[in-house]
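Go through this chain.

——
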Amino acid sequence: MTVRSFGFLMFPDFEELDLVGPWEMATMWRALAGGPRCLAVAAQPGVIRCAKGLGVVADHGFDDCPALDYLLVPGGAGTRVAMQDGPTLEFLRRQAAGARAVLSVCTGSIVLAAAGLLDGRAATTHWKAIPRLRAYPAVTLREERWVRDGTIWTSAGVSAGIDLLLAFIAAEDGEEAASAAQAGAEYYPDGRIYRSATRRPEAPSYVGDLT
């Protein structure tokens, strides 16, 4: 049986939880329900410094990265550079051409849009980045926790990537696989909303259903 591969793209100043949250779910999927092996990929192998200071290590560079079944792009401050970086965009296009699915968290969707991978598709992003995604007229913006449009999956900001991955696992391998990952990570949000930040006019519309 062929082992599937799930690549997690890293670049300087990506938001830690955008990648680490989905990585946790994906590696639980691997350990508990036969999911794909997970690979950390960057332009070059080695240490990458994240937006909040955490240092992480890329296993592969663009040149030696194998063909991926799945690829996830995180968001964060570093997307403003990544979305203009030719080798990064070319890597995304090349891998997306043969991948079963491409996913993004937070402003990772802006990088996908810059690569042309969201043309004619619906997508979401972090609520602060909604104007940035609207700058791509070929993309239909949806203010939702996560959005699937064919083989492209996008999520809102930071913690939303965990929910994205669980939904993705369920779609790929069934709800029992997603349940195993969820239980292994003990991810059971209590739904509590703290104070008034989510009631601001600029908050995404899906939050209104939670308050």
